[in-house]
């Protein structure tokens, strides 16, 4: 019986941890008004309060007339799942538009200079980060951590609502710059082997 109990422990622990995670996730989601966001088609949180501004049209989607709304008495996690499943195309458009503005750190109410500089800095770093993640230069554990962290961060923001100034992107940038800098260094090493200094 001892070996059986020992073998069941990892499974029991994993199952308990997963259930606890779902309960905590449900509790967290209950503090967000994501159903209301779906009802008004917001990309940036609270943008509907300035709907008269010329840039607002770029930050709101047309809401389908037959939009499915979950029962308000259901658990928050269930409401999120059902509103996505029952409105797949609309949910995909919302998510993709939020991801675009969130990841690239651009907004129609920012200046052209701001948006251009943001893209000029972030696009190369994203490229070098992806390059590093698909290469064999990083340890597998580090790759899994980085991919998991970035995926959870992007999903948690874009499934709910992005902030007007993308402050939720800030925790991701140090990791992206760190990994991306490694990829950039590899390019420098391969292209400029005759540099008068060492990059070690």
Short description:
The protein is an all-alpha fold. It is built from seven helices and no strands.
Defining key terms:
single chain; 200 residues; 2 domains; 7 helices; flat
Q: What does this 3D model show about the protein?
A:
By secondary structure, the protein is mostly helical. The protein has 2 domains: 1-30; 32-191, no CATH class. Helices cover 62% and strands 0% of the residues. The protein has 7 helices and no strands. The chain has helices spanning 2-29, 34-40, 76-86, 88-104, 112-133, 140-158, 173-191. It is flat. 14% of the residues are buried. The model has no long low-confidence stretch (mean pLDDT 86).
Q: Tell me the quaternary state.
A: single chain
Task: State the total count of DSSP E strands.
Answer: 0
The class by helix and strand makeup works out as mainly alpha
> Which residue ranges are poorly predicted, with pLDDT under 50 across at least 5 consecutive positions?
none
When the domains are counted, the total is 2
Could you give a short account of the major beta sheet? Answer: none
Question: How widely separated are the two ends?
Answer: 55 Å
How would you state the average pLDDT, rounded? 86
**Coarse morphology:** flat
Share of residues in strands: under 5%
Helix fraction bin: 55-70%
Secondary structure tally, helices: 7
Radius of gyration: 22 Å
N-to-C series of helices and strands: HHHHHHH
């Amino acid at each position: 019986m001892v070996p059986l109990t020992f073998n069941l422990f990892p499974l029991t622990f994993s199952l308990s941890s997963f259930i606890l995670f779902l309960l905590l996730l449900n509790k967290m989601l209950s503090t967000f008004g994501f159903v209301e966001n779906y009802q008004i088609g917001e990309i940036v949180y609270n943008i509907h309060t300035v709907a008269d501004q010329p840039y607002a049209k770029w930050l709101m989607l047309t809401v389908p007339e037959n939009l499915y709304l979950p029962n308000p008495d259901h658990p928050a996690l269930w409401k999120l799942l059902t509103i996505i499943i029952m409105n797949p195309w609309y949910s995909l458009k919302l998510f993709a538009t939020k991801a675009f503005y969130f990841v690239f750190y651009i907004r129609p109410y920012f200046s052209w200079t701001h948006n251009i500089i943001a893209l000029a800095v972030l696009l190369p770093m994203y490229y070098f980060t992806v390059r590093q993640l698909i290469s064999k230069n990083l340890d597998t554990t580090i790759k899994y951590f980085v991919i998991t962290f970035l995926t959870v961060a992007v999903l948690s923001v874009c499934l709910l609502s992005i902030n007007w100034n993308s402050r939720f992107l800030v925790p991701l940038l140090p990791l992206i710059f760190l990994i991306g800098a490694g990829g950039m260094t590899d390019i420098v090493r391969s292209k400029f082997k005759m540099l008068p200094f060492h990059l070690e």
